[in-house]
Design goal:
By secondary structure, the protein is an alpha/beta fold. 41% of the residues lie in helices and 14% in strands.
Length: 177
């Protein structure tokens, strides 16, 4: 079974995968196919855990390929903290793509924080709609990571070192500057 960690970004997805790398019966990678297109983009091996915030823009294709035959985690973090983190990264990455591509240069009157809030609302809405008919899901809150990860571990019948995985949640990977 494949597992997808759906998220906005800036919410612990790197840490999630670091924790999952202590699981021995799944592979786990972060944004491992993000530069690929076509069929290659979603050509994940079996028993793989993938976290990639860009999957929120590919949910139709994800549904067509995996449908209800995968496990989906909706990874979330306090929206204001996430928006604050994104606002400090407004000139590159997904925020630049959202402002310049999706919103077609957005109004210059919008602050980076307002754009980040809009992006988060859009992505969270896309994920919620996608998950509404899925039976293998878990809502995961970064603020409750250790407990939610333990639940995740048991739900996917993970094997490996749970204690080491839980220790990863004490490390702040990929923090905004």
């Amino acid at each position: 079974m494949n597992i997808f960690i759906l998220n906005t970004g800036r919410c612990g997805s790197t840490t999630f995968i670091k924790a999952c790398q202590h699981i021995t019966n799944y592979t786990a990678l972060h944004e491992s196919r993000s530069t690929l297109i076509g069929a290659d983009r979603l050509a994940y091996t079996d028993n793989h855990i993938e976290a990639d915030n860009r999957l929120s823009w590919l949910l139709g294709r994800l549904d067509r390929k995996f449908g209800d035959n995968a496990f989906y985690v909706h990874l979330m973090r306090n929206a204001e903290q996430t928006a604050d983190s994104f606002s400090r990264r407004s000139d590159f990455g997904i925020m630049k793509a959202y402002r310049e591509g999706v919103l077609m240069q957005a109004q210059q009157t919008e602050t980076a924080l307002e754009l980040a809030r809009d992006y988060i609302d859009t992505v969270e809405s896309n994920i919620a709609l996608f998950l509404k008919d899925k039976t293998h899901t878990l809502q995961f809150n970064l603020e409750n990571a250790r407990q939610d990860f333990t639940t995740f571990w048991h739900r996917i019948n993970a094997q490996g070192d749970l204690d080491a995985a839980l220790l990863e949640w004490q490390i702040n990977y990929n923090a905004s500057t």
